[in-house]
Write a structure and sequence with these properties.
The structure is a single chain. The protein is α+β, with helices and mostly antiparallel strands and about 110 residues long. It has a single domain, classed as Alpha-Beta Plaits. Helices cover about 35% and strands about 30% of the residues. It has three helices and six strands; from the N terminus they run E-E-H-E-E-H-H-E-E. The strands form two sheets. A four-stranded antiparallel β-sheet has the order 3-4-2-5, with helices on one face. It has a two-stranded antiparallel sheet with strand order 1-6. The longest helix is centred in the first third of the chain and has 15 residues. It is globular. The N terminus is likely disordered.
Length: about 110
């Protein structure tokens, strides 16, 4: 069996968050505002915001964002940075203040 990366396949951003109960509303507000910006960007395809309903695990929220490919990432990062600056958001400080731990990364689908 051969495992290969797809040629010009979509790129996925998968973010996992451990959010304390008391920080849920603040976290969801930030996620909603961020995804509103993402949804307007060229190369955005789809997203999901998921909340764990059962089972063990460290992360109780997962977001997935599908982009058309790596060529759009730079523009999307710039759009979110502009939004953060305009809104006075320091993401690292906001997450620390809410007691949120995160694991984030870009993923590509494999043909298996």
């Amino acid at each position: 069996m051969s495992i290969q990366q797809s040629g010009q396949a979509p790129l996925y951003r998968i973010n996992k968050f451990s959010v304390p109960t008391e920080s849920r509303d603040g976290f969801l507000d930030l996620i909603a505002r961020t995804h509103a910006v993402l949804r307007k960007q060229e190369g955005f395809v789809a997203d999901q915001i998921l909340e764990q309903q059962s089972g063990p695990g460290v992360f109780n929220f997962v977001t997935t964002i599908e982009f058309s490919g790596p060529e759009v990432i730079e523009g999307i990062i710039a759009a979110v940075a502009t939004f953060d600056q305009r809104e006075g958001i320091d993401r690292q400080q906001a997450m620390a203040g809410l007691g949120i731990k995160a694991d984030m990364g870009l993923y590509r689908s494999l043909d298996i």
